[in-house]
Amino acid sequence: MEYLIGIQGPDFVLVAADSVAASSIIKMKDDHDKMFKLSDNILLLCVGEAGDTVQFAEYIQKNVQLYKMRNGYELSPTAAANFTRKNLADYLRSRTPYHVNLLLAGYDQADGPALFYMDHLSALAKAPFAAHGYGAFLTLSILDRYYKPGGWTGEQDASLLSILNKRFILNLPSFNVRAIDKEGVHDLEKVFKHAYLRSRGDFRY
Amino acid sequence: PFLASTLYLCCILSCTAPDSVPAPDASGWSAGGPGGPDSAPGAGPDSAPGAVPLPFPTAHGTTTLGFLFQGGVLAAADTRSSCSGLVACPASRKVVPLHRHLLALGSGTSADIALWRRILARELRLYQLRHGRRLTTGGAAKLLALMLHPFKGTELAGPPGGGAGTSRGGARLYYVCSDGKRLRGELFSVGSGSPYAYSVLDEEVRWGLSVEQAARAGREAVYRASRRDAYSGNCVDVFLVTAVVYLIKHRENKP
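YS: structure for the whole thing
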């Protein structure tokens, strides 16, 4: 039901997450942000079981910030990803494993853009593009077909989201889209499938 | 499963200045004092937290809702406590003040709700004594979510807790679930009757409603939900929370 996607470009990483917070059949919130900012250059996208996502992601977020306070410099995306994976692995065989699926996207001044895929069994893989959720079944093949390491542009992102609108039976009307490059994290325009609520004068939009 | 235990936390803080208490027309509104009366919502089904299996499936029948609008936060709930097929208490209280600025709405097993409400009230008061300021609404919601997280996986229906209101942030509404979810929003409804209430609310609620219109919308939503949902019903409680104090509408005895 929840969907995350990340695509690495030549000097940026583009990430998007759907913005629905659901409980059973009800959409409780449709402007929910699933991205957690670990530092100026790193974003953690987190989906999974209801309370675990926020608990785990905030735990990682605070620890990354603590590292910076203690040592004076920030963790690189690779280090942050490995730290996250280690925590997932440590809890995996405890009584309280965290059932979360993650994407970690960051830009390192030395190594460039990086995208890491992690799942609830604490697998870690650095990948040029990755997705979580049922929507991944529909979008990964497009990425396989059309992705070139140096040539992903922002317009192609819209085509991915439109294929979800066309084929996915579950309605994902809105997404949060952000890009990370050497200047940091940028909010791109929130993508809405329809402006129904705006037209009703809803003050949120 | 939709009848699974859920927790609804409603923390409210109004955005009006403290010295300008909005005066809704006097029909039926009375100010709620800080010295709240009992918070026990009445008899409810047994709750058996921990590893002990429940002897029968508990039905968490409730319709509670809250939404933000220009006059503050409106909260409404039904008053029926059910116990596997019969009405244990037709006049229970599901909206309970935790503070002058803070209301808690509950959905789930009444025993757990009462317990966690007291725990949260205690923790809020301790925070206030230790730090000299009230915990914000979001902070109280966070506190409750963190306290409930260790009980995840047990059949617990957390009670809703209220967050203390401060005059910094304005009106706030939070939903807290016993599985640890915590969401901030402008309109929430929780309980077995909540889908029915959601659809009515989505049609009627606007930011610019007057106090009477908002009360009518809340009451209508709970009433419609109680018509369709077997486990909600009896009367409707309507609360309005502003910056200074919460106001209670006289409980309506709708058949």
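YS: worth flagging: Chain A touches chain B through 20 residues (CB under 8 Å).
IM: good catch. Also The radius of gyration of chain A is 17 Å.
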